[in-house]
Amino acid sequence: MLDALVFFYLIVPLVHLIHETGHVVMAKLYHVKGTKIRIGIGPKVMESTLFDTNFRIHIIPFLGGYSTNDSEKELSPKATVWISAGGPMFNFISIIFLFPFLTSFEFSYHYLFFLYSLWIGGVNLLPFKLFDKKSDGWQIAASLITLIRTR
What we know:
single chain; alpha+beta; two-stranded antiparallel ribbon; about 55% helix
């Protein structure tokens, strides 16, 4: 029971926070203003602003997350590729930092973090569209196609 609580209320939100922070860091490199990170759904539990980014955590933190911004200007396809790739990139970087601490013979929270971060980073690179939501992979593929067509 404790393992499930740690996974859903600590590991999953942390992996989502790392992923969304990757998008925000890349957006800031392209001077995008008004960045926001939202973790979970339901009523707001906590809200804070750090480095000009508004963070909000909701009561059910394990049901996803997203980042957004106040930018009204259209981003270049190159910027869109890098910003969309930032989330999965940060997931893979966190895996690389964690790798030396993994043990192959016993259950650990490190291993759960490793697997879930690998899952989130990998799945988000797949290009798919579900209703009006587009994956990072979709954004990357669409922007790369635009870049190729304009050359």
